[in-house]
Amino acid sequence: MTEDQPPFRDPELTRAARVEDLLARLTLDEKTALLHQFAPAVERLGVAAFRTGQEALHGVAWMGPATVFPQALGLGATWNEELVRRVGEAVSHEIRTMRARDDRVGLNVWAPTVNLLRNPLWGRNEEGYAEDARLTSVLATAYTRGLRGDHPDYWRTAPVLKHWLAHNNETDRATTSSSVRPRVLHEYDLRAFRGAVEAGAVAGVMPAYNLVNGRPNHLSPALREHLRGWTEQELLVCSDAGAPTNLVDAEGYFDTHEEATAAALRAGVDSFTDHGTDASVITGRIRGALERGLIGESDIDTAVRRQLTVRFALGEFDPERDPYRETSAFDTPGHRALAQEAAEQAVVLLKNDGLLPIAPGRRIALVGPLADECKLDWYSGTLIRRSTPLDGLRERFGADRVTFADGADRVTLRAMTGGWVRVPSSGRAEEAGREIPGAEGALDPALLAGRTDLPPLTCDADGAGEATELALTDWGNGLITLRAPDGRYLSVAEDGYVRASADQPGGWVVQETFRLEEHEGGHLLAHAGTDGYVAVAADGLKVADHGTSFEIVVRERGEDAVARAAAGAEVVVVVAGNDPHINGRETEDRRTLALPPHQDRLWRAAHAANPRTLLVLTSGYPYAVADAQARLPALLWTAHGGQAAGTALARVLAGDISPAGRLPQTWYADDADPAGLLDYDIIGSRQTYLYFDGTPLYAFGHGLSYSTFRYDGLEVGPDLRARVTLTNRGSRAADEVVQLYAREAAPRVPRPHRQLVAHARVPLAPGESRTVELTVTRDELGHYDVARGAWTVPGGTYVFEAAASSADIRRHVRLTIPGDTPRARDLPRNGLAAADYDEQTGTEIVDRTKESGDAVTPLDTGGGRKAGELLFRDCDFGDGEGGVTVEAAGEGEVTLTTADGRTLAVIEVGATGGPYDYRTTPRTIIPLSGVHDLRVTLRGPLRLARIDISG
After folding, report:
1. How far apart are CA 781 and CA 786, in angstroms?
2. Nearest to 404 by CA among 471, 500, 489, 504
3. Same domain, 388 and 455
4. Domain end: 313, 332, 358, which one?
5. Would 9 be classed as within a structural domain?
6. Torsion of CA 106, 108, 111, 115, to 10 degrees
């Protein structure tokens, strides 16, 4: 360091000392400006501009061409943390390389999403790894380690985990509250985040839009009470986009934005993502909060300190020492091979009655709406190269052996007022076709929908012979897309005209989807993106308030084309599933687990024409396909597999590799099987493989192979080290995913049927045997004891199961483990926190205050009447007569009874003045001693915080 350089430029000083020096040199206005996502440069100190937020869920997103890996759900299906680590490493190399070319590319990456896949109807199901907290944590740790890099001091990128906390619905996501009792919080939701944080692999978290227990996640006391206690490093908390404003505008949680911003800052939000690049709104609110005394300069310092710590870790102030500064790995042969390897490992074989693998030389009919697609999602990068199933199968089996039909209905449109709809020549034939632009100067397909330089569709009265035949694909829930002969989708630009201009449906508002509404003997074509209707105008088709009625003339049904192709083939491959931008995505949950009816008809038509039909489901979600499972000889599933998806699928179908993906979540048989989308109590409502009491279509961990495996000699020692011998009994090299589950043999509280405690993906040559060692941590066997307010591992007998899935147990052993001794709740000493119940009906948890704490309120039973019940087991009332008081807000009645129905007390709660105005009721004598189960009935619009017993 030279004499004129300040200490924060001295790499020999500790990072903390350098951060403090720089912090002290910043003015209050400069520090305030740093709290917005787009932090400006501080030129007088030579500090560059910085922004938080670079999407990198399964590749670099939104910044143009990059290697596209399988969706996060697909990476979850590999059950291979080492593979996932390598994917994270490749993504971070590409981020650094792209950053060197374009300073808009950020090094603070918002990935991965570790929200648990509790309910498969969640619109963002594709973004998560698994429904299991341990598997999610292991994979998240691996991915973030890859993103972070392995240098002890400098980070290649700084990953932020999404979305804190208990977030698994898009429906009303900014206003709904997840009721999460302490057991679910500690045993499920927190565990998904904790592993990566404790491993030192993440820079921070992003709070979710939703509320938890009545309090917005951007005010979550768990940030302070749990997250920051898991590590000694500074963690950066970045708000989700627009969420700070939601605290007032959508949620009405505060009256003013100054109050809301101050509360979020005090709760631990360090970077505000709001109002795009316009920082003036947030900085104005912060200054207003300062003027009102809602925050002090020290609150701003705390947030800026965390931001600067991350920037120092990224090497910003030590360019000569930054080990990742010269990274230039982008679209390398290694990255391409890794994308293919990941896609191959993600394929899950659901059923196989001998149809697979497909022998060389077979005539194959490849059919279905995804048979020639390589779909991207909202968090994908732009493809540099792609492989669809059609590409893959033609390359692997020969183009002359593969017949293709997409299964779309071929239709023409005739305006009921006269004239046929035509797609004019675009004059841009060179842009049509299958070629994907290279990395340099590539055009992002997501931008094509907004083009206005192409001519709009016309409606001419020249006769049906001049009509353009369109491919109509029904995606379910009434949504269709229409595709022109050159492959472009009909889309609506900002000027309202309908053009064949989009390579794919996409964008934040999808402009390529329509609905057919019966009208005056024809159909109106409703445009989903604008809620308008397609109308015939003098200068072309455009969207208006009132539409033209069209006759839909079907030239050929998709089922007929599929049946014709199937009849002439030796094997039929139906590729069905979802478009990631339609019927399930960010902002939109799914409505059903069923396949779209049209796709259901396609596989049935193919099977009727040729019994040697298999179904490949390519989707970010599970489907309820019980009929297909019962009737078809083979089924496979894969998440959208990125740029190498087609090659990977073809290699699996051909038997070049044996499939070894495993389902990372339960596939239910029917819509009635999973609990409600907004029911977050997985214990009480019996959700996920942990508690589900029914029979799933496919169990968590399910996946078949072209080989068979024998499990022998399971042993689990007192040190919880497990050993099991696997033998590949087949003639093919194959991976087996050995899964180790554990369960308490005789639990005194509801515990999982079984819970994953270790796993390994093991490659085995034909005939090879290998002894696999798996280590279980003792805490994996425990649960959160609400009576003690602490994690507990009960002493007793545990069953350990070596399994091929959660429903396919191969070997088991019992082991007695010393542990904690359960004890009754000491009511005279500790009382009862209302949210620490053992069971409940008709209640939800709400916020005790706006800053912290929980209370319980009854739900509406109809007609404005509110009632609910809590059960507290094993309550010790002491040795004699005691008195009871309750702490509550609102107005209503609290009734205490024993489990056998004896009424102990009926306590009236008078109107307290507001939901946060808690009062303690007068003491009521209850003549009870000893240990009993206690039932607490709540009636009326009250919030119960505590019950206390005094002698």
Report:
1. 16
2. 471
3. no
4. 313
5. no
6. -140
The DSSP code for 185 is I
Per-residue confidence (pLDDT) for residue 449, from 0 to 100: 56
756: closest CA among 72, 139, 115? 139
Last residue of a domain, one of 511, 534, 556: 556
Same domain membership, residue 256 and residue 121: yes
Q: Are residues 413 and 402 in the same domain?
A: no
State phi, psi for 865 to the nearest 5 degrees. Answer: -85, 135
Q: How is residue 803 written in tokens? A: 């399994």
Place of tokens 């099977």: 607
Instruction: Copy the structure tokens of residue 292.
Output: 């009102």
Q: Kindly state whether residues 422 and 390 are assigned to the same domain.
A: no
Tally of domains within the chain: 5
Q: Are residues 598 and 455 in the same domain?
A: no
522 shares its domain with 575: no
> For the domain that residue 886 is a member of, what is the CATH number?
2.60.120.260
By three-state DSSP, how is residue 34 classified? Answer: coil
* Domain-located, residue 502: yes
Query: Can you give the residue range of the structural domain that contains 937?
Result: 825-950
CB atoms within 10 A of CB 695: 10
Report the alpha-carbon distance of residue 496 to residue 623 in Å, rounded: 36
376: exposed, middle or buried (Cβ count in 10 Å: 0-12, 13-18, 19+): buried
> What tens digit of pLDDT does each residue of 631-644 get?
999 999 999 999 99
Whether 132 has a pLDDT exceeding 90, the answer reads: yes
Of 287, 74, 171, the closest CA to residue 677 belongs to: 171
CA-wise closest residue to 744 among 774, 785, 705? 785
* Structure token pair of residue 453: 């330089």
Distance CA 439, CA 331 (A): 8
By three-state DSSP, how is residue 405 classified? Answer: strand
Tens digit of each residue's pLDDT (9 = 90 or more) over 163-172: 999 999 999 9
CB 860 within 8 A of CB 891: no
Segment 29-54, tens digit of pLDDT = 999 999 999 999 999 999 999 999 99
Question: Per the domain annotation, does 659 fall within a domain?
Answer: no
Helix (H, G, I), strand (E, B) or coil at 75: helix
The answer to whether 324 and 54 have CB atoms below 8 angstroms apart is no
What burial class does residue 299 get, using C-beta atoms within 10 Å of its C-beta: 0-12 exposed, 13-18 middle, 19+ buried?
middle
pLDDT at 900: 87
Q: Domain with 397 in it: what CATH number?
A: 3.40.50.1700
The answer to whether the CB of 919 falls within 8 A of the CB of 888 is yes
CA dist 178 and 173 (Å) reads: 10
Q: Which two tokens stand for residue 364?
A: 């194959």
Q: Which amino acid appears at position 446 of this protein?
A: A
CATH number for the domain harbouring residue 532? 2.80.10.50
Cβ neighbours for 841, distance < 8 A, ≥ 6 positions apart: 868, 869
Residue 674 lies in a domain: no
Q: Is residue 694 located within the same domain as residue 623?
A: no
Chain centroid offset of residue 165 CA: 12
User: Is the pLDDT assigned to residue 462 strictly greater than 90?
Assistant: no
Could you tell me the CATH number of the domain that includes residue 800? Answer: 2.60.40.10
Q: Are residues 813 and 779 in the same domain?
A: yes
**Whole-angstrom distance, CA of residue 870 vs CA of residue 879:** 24
Length of the chain: 951
**Which residue, 195, 188, 204, 177, is CA-closest to 117?**
188
Contact 154, 145 (CB under 8 A): no
Q: Give pLDDT tens digits for 468-508.
A: 999 999 999 999 999 999 999 999 999 999 999 999 999 99
Query: In which residue are the tokens 């994270």 written?
Result: 88
* Integer Cα distance of 416 and 439 in angstroms: 47
Q: Is 78 in a helix, a strand, or coil?
A: helix
Contact present, 374 and 392 (Cβ < 8 Å): no
- CATH code of the domain in which 104 resides: 3.20.20.300
Cβ atoms of 105 and 94 within 8 Å: the answer is no
